[in-house]
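**Polypeptide and fold**
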Amino acid sequence: MRVQVSLRALHQFQFSYEEGDDIMRLSLRVFCFALALGVVAACSTAIAQEKNDADKLYNEGNARYKSGNYQGAIEKYTEALNIVGDYRYHYQRGLSYKNSRQYDRAVSDFEAAISLKKDFAIGFNALGGVHLLVGDYDKSIESFKLAAKNDPRLDRSRKGIGEAYAGKAQQLLDAGKFEGAGVLLDEALTEHSENAKLYLIAARVYNRLENAEKSISSAQEAIKLKKRGAMGAEYFELGIGYKKLNDFEKARAAFMEAKKDPTYSRNAQYELDGLKGR
């Protein structure tokens, strides 16, 4: 009888011990979970504070940028980037470098901004602008096209593509590569028929290729599209085209218009003198 009671008591003790062990495990899990939540909350608070601090520096940089203090703006954007890597900070610092003529650093920042925001159309546009400034026309065209792809409404990128094509065509023209320039211009003008500069360069190229008809039509388009400024270059190429066709009356009229531009006055007068008696 005593043995049975003892066994029953032992069984009850084992049950109570195992139940208590489960409670301890549960309590430990609850404690660990609460601790983890606390760590996450603390980290989130710290991250939010860092972002606020970085944004404050970013805004200070913007104020300096707007006042034309680009070096001061660069310092603030750099401080912000030391806290948080944000595409906006890179973009604004890139603009500051660009305005300070530190083009290599501007390129690096715009590329960093794009790496953080893959569809950053304005970033691609800014990158295209820097490549255009330094004469890297192929990269400029590529960047402007990516800007237009990511935001078809971005008119600046379309204009940028036209300017980059014009720059590359002029580069080929200066190198005496007239055939290559002509091919490029034909391609460019199918997509950018509103660009007066492209038509002017086309007029020069076609005159050198002895294609007077295309030179004349290109010069006429350049004159029609150009909104303001002197037009000595456009009328001079027009005159050369008519001269090649032996249409001396129209050539003379075009050179008279070109002569009104001080930059082309001497060259136009030289051509007019050559037309005397013809």
Notes: The mean pLDDT is 89. The domain at 50-118 is CATH 1.25.40.10 (Serine Threonine Protein Phosphatase 5, Tetratricopeptide repeat). The two ends are 145 Å apart (CA to CA). The chain is about 80% helix and 0% strand.
